[in-house]
Design goal:
Elements (H helix, E strand, L loop, with lengths): L1 H22 L1 E8 L4 E3 L5 E4 L3 H12 L3 E6 L2 E7 L2 E2 L4 E7 L18 E8 L8 E6 L5 E7 L5 E3 L3 E5 L2 E5 L3 E3 L7 E4 L11
Parallel strand pairs: 1-8
Antiparallel strand pairs: 1-2, 1-3, 4-5, 5-6, 7-8, 9-10, 10-11, 10-14, 12-13, 12-15
């Protein structure tokens, strides 16, 4: 009887350990800080339990960076990631698949393949800053830079710059070619959140 009970406890405990992994979803996660990328410039896939707040937690474990959540009247609120604390008109917000949801990060249910971007933003009369999206074009070593608003609508990011290593190239009409290069390419534009990175 004791042997049967022991076997049941071992099997039951193992099953309980496997349940969270089985329920996890594979989500692309990136965290952009005030002055630099904090985690996942190439948007790696992480196993995330359920929501956008869990995505930040998974990224924090993978990237070994600090974040803090405080409880507000509307629910949990991320008031710090890395060294920068939210305050005044600046703080930490997120997008899901390029869109800013009208609910808190804990209320957004994720599915396999979703993209979660956490970023530091300063809000003004016109709202928050656009986020940049970097895409490869059909032409080798050429890239397109898009500026994405909170509804996920995009337009060419005129005046953006492409960066690779120590090189910087203007993308005046939202596209530019770098020629042969090594390393990751990112795009920046004053007043916008830096882009994802591509090879």
């Amino acid at each position: 009887m004791y042997r049967r009970l022991f076997t049941w406890l071992v099997v039951g405990s193992t099953a309980l350990l496997l349940i969270p992994a089985a329920l996890a979803v594979g989500v692309h996660v990136r965290v952009e800080g005030k002055t630099r990328n904090i985690f996942g410039s190439t948007e790696p896939t992480l196993n995330v339990q359920a929501n956008a707040l869990d995505a930040l937690d998974s990224a924090s474990v993978a990237g070994e960076f600090y974040y803090h959540v405080t409880q507000a009247s509307f629910g949990p609120y991320v008031d710090q990631i890395g060294r920068y604390v939210a305050g005044g008109s600046s703080g930490w917000v997120f997008k899901l698949n390029g869109v800013s949801p009208p609910v808190g990060a804990n209320a957004v249910t994720l599915k396999d393949g979703d993209r979660v971007l956490w970023y530091y933003a300063t809000f003004g009369a016109a709202g928050g800053p656009p986020t940049l999206v970097l895409q490869s074009t059909k032409k080798r070593n050429c890239y397109r830079v898009l500026a994405q608003d909170d509804q996920g609508k995009t337009k060419a990011a005129r005046g953006a710059r492409l960066h690779v290593g120590s090189r910087s190239v203007p993308a005046r009409v939202g596209t530019a070619c770098l020629g042969p290069h090594r390393g990751l390419v990112i795009a920046t534009l004053e007043g916008a959140v830096r882009s994802n990175a591509l090879r």
